[in-house]
Amino acid sequence: MSNLAFSYQDTLIEAGCDEAGRGCLAGPVFAAAVILDPKMDLSELNDSKKLSAKKREELREIIEEGAVAWAVAQLSPAEIDKHNILQASFLAMHRALDQLTITPELLLIDGNRFRPYKEIPHHCMIKGDGRFLSIAAASILAKTHRDEYMLQQAEKYPEYGWSSNKGYPTKAHRAAIAQFGATPLHRKSFRLLPEAEQKKLSFED
């Protein structure tokens, strides 16, 4: 049985929200919003970072089939550069909430900050993906959908190792940027390389 709490309270419809990809050098930031059904078997649900890729995929299927409502959204690298990554994460959550087929009455947000969404009250939960099932479910959907996207892009840009690093700042990823330059999926506002080298980068269109 999971040791995560099902809900923060018992009267309002709750949606858990989380994002994936904030710390990446390349690719969109993804976010998910999930309203869970209490009848679901969530015994194996946990923070996505503590689960294997295989287990995340299994749980994604359970969540998508059994949740009362769920949605996943993204903001592109260009939008991240325009808004900054923190605001882009909030906007991605807003886009996911926009797509829910049921309007939640309370939002549980992973992290310590959020931009209010419409008139719906929210609670920010530090390490919420390890505390509440709905946030853990959102973390799994955001992570698996983003990983799937980056695996597709890895076929187009095989030099950067996205099939394994998913766009995160590994040593090999930075070395590939230094050797092959930046792609349209790289975030121009991020420190991709040391400053002197980054100034010389050209970004493909």
Automatic annotation (TrEMBL):
It comes from the Bacteria. Keywords: Cytoplasm, Endonuclease, Hydrolase, Manganese, Metal-binding, Nuclease. Its cofactor is Mg(2+); Mn(2+). The keyword Metal-binding applies. It holds the Pfam family RNase_HII. Residues 12-202 form the RNase H type-2 domain. Its EC number is 3.1.26.4. One of its GO terms (cellular component) is cytoplasm. The keyword Ligase does not apply. One of its GO terms (biological process) is DNA replication, removal of RNA primer. SUPFAM superfamilies: Ribonuclease H-like. It is an enzyme of class 3 (hydrolase). Manganese or magnesium. Binds 1 divalent metal ion per monomer in the absence of substrate. May bind a second metal ion after substrate binding. It is found in: Cytoplasm. A divalent metal cation binds at D18, E19, D110. It catalyses: Endonucleolytic cleavage to 5'-phosphomonoester. Endonuclease that specifically degrades the RNA of RNA-DNA hybrids. PANTHER family: RIBONUCLEASE H2 SUBUNIT A (PTHR10954), RIBONUCLEASE HII (PTHR10954:SF18). Belongs to the RNase HII family. This is Ribonuclease HII.
